[in-house]
Amino acid sequence: MSACLIYFTSFLVFSMLSFFLSLNFMSLDFMMVLEIEMVSVNSCSVVMSILLDWMSLLFASFVLFISSMVIFYSHEYMEGDLMINRFIMLVVMFVISMLLLIFSPNLISILLGWDGLGLVSYCLVIYYQNVKSFNAGMLTALTNRLGDVAFLMSIAWMLNFGSWNYLFFLDFMLNSIEMQIIMFLMLLAGMTKSAQIPFSSWLPAAMAAPTPVSSLVHSSTLVTAGVYLLIRFNFCMGDSVKIILLFVASLTMFMAGLGASYEFDLKKIIALSTLSQLGLMMSILAMGGYVLAFYHLLTHALFKALLFMCAGAMIHGLGNCQDIRFMGGMISQMPLTCVFFVICNMSLCGLPFLSGFYSKDLILEFVSMDNLGVYTYMIYYVSTGLTVAYTFRLIYYVLSGDYNHFSFHSISDLGLVMLKGMVGIIFFVVFMGSGLSWMILSTPYFICLSFWMKSMTLIVTAFGGWFGYELAQLLLSYKSKSLKFIWSSMFFGSMWNTPYISTFGVNFYPLHGGISVYETVDQGWSEYLGSQNFYFSLSLLSKFLQIFHNSNLKIFLSLTVMWVMFLILMIF
């Protein structure tokens, strides 16, 4: 308990300090770059740069606050673990890597945080050490390595500018071909870390990690690193990069909403909702609303962290059961946790005056004001409807109806440490949306829409709730046993087959090809023409020489006569 309490207290204090500093920097419109000289040899110096502005300080305060609550929550959730101190140290390393990424204006120091996140996330995903965890960890690590390679290539391209401090070159090197290449590579890095199509499959797989880690990863650390990086680089985004990002991110948002509507694993449903919200942030960033993307990033961090904590409390009580079909009637078993769960889900849907509403409604109205065409407009509102649909389906399965698990159970709201960790966040989930809107949006957005366009969000939300209820009923009915429905649910529920592409395409087919090459080349032609051929040739020669050994005296005398005759012929 001592290690948990120490880290919880220190993170909470630093979070408050960072928050008030960000308010100060915001009010003064102030920014500071600190350069700390680490090593200096002759004229060569290694300098550590730290960027302090309202954005980095505010995001750091949220990361520290959520991680402090998660560490406090972990003490009870991981109480059966004999190595809980190791787990806490991994979480602390994870948070430090994220902070290094947030405060760095330098690509080299960002890479330290970036790779630190990748390495520690692998250690946390494989924490339970079974086959599923190992596969998920390897998929996570290898997918993120693609983005790391793009990052390393952008570091090499930055040598054209003579410095790795990208912040100094974003404005006046805007139109150079080098900056456009760097921006494209950064886009690839951000897409892998934030799990956009076609790199989406690692995000649900990473649910093999303990639930407190999922709470931290999906709210404010690993998956938001890509969004934060692109927010920093948004000033040099060209039109081609923006169009690519808008198309990919909007498709990701739609695909994740469909996948969550067919999923039965509680943690994977919440993970797919994170993927949907990441698509929302990325797409609004591609439209030029980087402040809106950052605003939604912060509000989403609050309710998603608490959503995972509530899910963890339910899984903990159900003896590690994650299938929502085995739940039901949970509201009577653990009422306070379920109240928190519903509030977070409503915030995710954008229910008025919760934190998610302020950012999400503003984003949708911003999209409605834009003139990007019917595709963007439709996919935004359809994805919003799907968000409400899978949320209502989740609430229907988990909270209502009869209790479907074992009659012998230990589900209750008596986990006081976990409840205290959740109570710490719930007030921010309810009130922080409006508070952030007053702080971040110094100039109010002027939205001028017709009555029906203004009402579209409400209409789509109501329709999505009805659709989610009907889908839950359909999945329970006999129609869900039909072959056509099974095929469609397999396609939509598997995120348009991206996990099969990333596992079979990356693992199975190369291994299968390797077996074929082994059988035809290593054990086939190379044996026939190589070692086996040498063996047969040498054995034939040895058999020929064996004849001499079998009748050696007769042959020796014959060879002697022949040698004497040869000498006589040579003499004469």
TrEMBL record:
Record GO biological process: ATP synthesis coupled electron transport; electron transport coupled proton transport
UniProt-listed Enzyme Commission number(s): 7.1.1.2
Membrane topology: Multi-pass membrane protein
Chief localisation class: mitochondrion
Keyword Membrane among record annotations: yes
Regions crossing the membrane: 5-26, 46-72, 84-102, 108-128, 149-167, 173-192, 213-231, 243-262, 269-295, 338-358, 378-399, 411-432, 444-469, 490-509, 555-571
One MF term in the entry's GO annotations: NADH dehydrogenase (ubiquinone) activity
Reactions the enzyme catalyzes: a ubiquinone + NADH + 5 H(+)(in) = a ubiquinol + NAD(+) + 4 H(+)(out)
Coiled coil: none
Domain NADH:quinone oxidoreductase/Mrp antiporter transmembrane residues, every copy: 104-372
GO cellular component terms attached to this protein's record: mitochondrial inner membrane
NADH-Ubiquinone oxidoreductase (complex I) chain 5 N-terminal domain ranges (all copies): 40-87
Keyword field: Electron transport, Membrane, Mitochondrion, Mitochondrion inner membrane, NAD, Respiratory chain, Translocase, Transmembrane, Transmembrane helix, Transport, Ubiquinone
Record-annotated NADH dehydrogenase subunit 5 C-terminal domain positions: 390-571
Cell compartments where the protein resides: Mitochondrion inner membrane
Enzyme class: translocase
Family (UniProt): Belongs to the complex I subunit 5 family.
Function: Core subunit of the mitochondrial membrane respiratory chain NADH dehydrogenase (Complex I) that is believed to belong to the minimal assembly required for catalysis. Complex I functions in the transfer of electrons from NADH to the respiratory chain. The immediate electron acceptor for the enzyme is believed to be ubiquinone. Core subunit of the mitochondrial membrane respiratory chain NADH dehydrogenase (Complex I) which catalyzes electron transfer from NADH through the respiratory chain, using ubiquinone as an electron acceptor. Essential for the catalytic activity and assembly of complex I.
Stated name of the protein: NADH-ubiquinone oxidoreductase chain 5
Gene: ND5
